[in-house]
From TrEMBL:
Region annotated Disordered, chain positions: 48-69
Basic and acidic residues composition bias: residue spans: 49-58
Name assigned to this protein: Uncharacterized protein
Pfam families linked: LKAAEAR
Organism superkingdom: Eukaryota
Native species: Silurus meridionalis (Southern catfish)
Amino acid sequence: MEKKRRSKKSVDLKRMCPQQKARILAYAEPSKEVRAWMAASQQRIHSRLAHEKEKVSRENPLQDMESKLHNDTLTGQLKAAEARNRIRQMRLKCHNLKMQEINLMISSQACVQSAVRLELLLTNEKQRNHADSLDQLQRQRVEEILEDEKGLTLIRS
């Protein structure tokens, strides 16, 4: 049966125009000879790359160490950036969930007056918590002044 299929395929391929042949043969398995040539070329490529890497590492091992250190630094920076991004996304998700919960609480109030009161209360609370006008250096300076019990930071002679 397989011989009939193969012979039928080869006869059909002979009748087809070149474009149709190319479309059909693009999805066909390559022959053993073609696979052998592909494997040999891949092997040559890999051996050539390995030889070049070995040659570079023998010629300049210090440069190889520097490039490895540079790659490790870049990898660390990428991982840190990904972690910061995950944390930022989690904060945004948490904030959105809070806002949805607040909106649900407001919308489920019995009368409009209590809904408006609750909304004003919650928005004032939100503004108080997030109104931080100090940057990191200023915050550090304020904490240093607050921790100074003897007043040595402010009193200068």
